[in-house]
Amino acid sequence: MKKNDSDQLIIANKEIAFQLQEKKNRAAELLIANKELVFQDEEKENRAAELIIANKELAFQNEEKENRAAELIIVNKELAFQLQEKENRAAELVIANKELAFQNKEKEKRAEELSIANRELKNAEDDIRKLNDELEQKVIQRTAQLEFVNKELEAFSYSVSHDLRAPIRGINGYTRILVEDYAEKLDEEGVQILQAIINNSKKMGLLIDDLLAFSKLGRKEVAFSEIDMAELVDLVIEELLFEEGEDTPEFNIAVLPPAKGDKSLIKQVWINLISNAIKYSKHKEKTTIEIGAYTKGNLIVYYVKDEGAGFDMQYYDKLFGVFQRLHSQEEFEGTGIGLAIVQKIVHRHHGTVWAESKVNEGTCFYFSLEKI
Questions:
Q1: Alpha-carbon distance 214 to 337, whole Å?
Q2: CA-based nearest residue to 332, from 309, 303, 365
Q3: How far apart, in whole angstroms, are the C-alpha atoms of residue 369 and residue 372?
Q4: How many other CB atoms are there within 10 angstroms of residue 340's CB atom?
Q5: Distance between CA atoms of 171 and 187, rounded to whole angstroms?
Q6: Class at the top of the CATH hierarchy for domain 222-372
Q7: Which of 70, 105, 190, 350 stands 20 to 30 A from 255 (CA)?
Q8: DSSP letter at 222?
Q9: Cα distance between residue 105 and residue 43, in whole Å
Q10: What is the rounded CA–CA span in Å between residue 208 and residue 164?
Q11: What global pTM score does this model have?
Q12: What are the domain boundaries of the chain?
């Protein structure tokens, strides 16, 4: 009985020892398992940290992808726009090519037309050459004729100057002898008739002088030089002659710039215009004459203005004609050639002369010359 109990205790002790050993083994395994769990927890934490980083990277990559996608959308739109532009350019090039083809055809036509025109021009040049030869021959003939006519004109002028003046002087002289020696034998009407003959012979002499002056203008060579216009006008006014008791005109002279021209001819222009202004103001209580100038482009326009009788502008066309008068001889003396001389001189200076007037209010004559 005791032996059985001892055997059982030994077995129980062995069992307990085995269990203890098992517990130790389990404890050791638990330590290893705990270490493994700690290691796995650390690994999990590492994996979690890596996952967080990976998630952030994925989020960043997704954002980049979205940005790239947006950029791709913009690029696609730009590509679509460029493709549209290329299509438009292609269409324009097609139209331009058609236009070029049309222009080339037009150029070919123009070239053909030019070729025809050149042939015609060559023919025309040949014709012109022939005409020039004929014209040169005609010019030589006309020059010879003009020289002959000029010689005849000079002979006529000499005849007018001497042959016509002689009988006029004779008429004038014999008439004066009648007035002086036979006045007592003539009644008043006879004396008046003789005086009329004297006056008319004097007018005839003046008319001959003006005609000769007018005819010489066409032959006189114009010598252009700088003219001190203020000095020239002062000289003309100083040389004016007035009869005793006659009112002296009042001259209002503005600045007169210099101009280009023939001094002797332009002096005659001033003499005629100023003399006219004085003559046609003689019935006014006071004679006031304004002389001035203004610039117009490359010209100087000079003017002489009076407050005299004036004239009706509807007869303006007659103003510069030879022997044309707008007032009667009884009212104002003159030959009717003075303004024709003025116009001819100004035209020979490549200028223009004109007038503005109102009846009984005065007249203003203008003439233009080239500036210095």
A1: 8
A2: 309
A3: 9
A4: 20
A5: 20
A6: alpha beta
A7: 350
A8: P
A9: 87
A10: 8
A11: 0.49
A12: 1-219, 222-372
For the record, the structure tokens of 360 come out as: 């009984």
* Locus of tokens 């004396």: 191
Q: Determine phi and psi for 358, rounding to 5 degrees.
A: -135, 140
Taking the C-alpha atoms of residue 82 and residue 87, their distance in angstroms, rounded to an integer, is 8
Q: Are 274 and 237 in contact (CB under 8 A)?
A: yes
Distance CA 258, CA 227 (A): 5
Give the phi and the psi of residue 260 in degrees, each rounded to 5: -100, 135
Non-local (6+) Cβ contacts of 164 within 8 A are 208
| pLDDT per residue as tens digits for the range 224-272 | 889 999 999 999 998 887 666 667 889 999 999 999 998 888 988 998 8
Q: What is the pLDDT of residue 219?
A: 57
Nearest to 366 by CA among 313, 263, 290: 290
Pinpoint the alpha helices (H) of the chain.
Answer: 2-158, 165-182, 188-217, 229-238, 263-279, 338-348
d(CA 335, CA 355): 19
The number of residues in the chain equals: 372
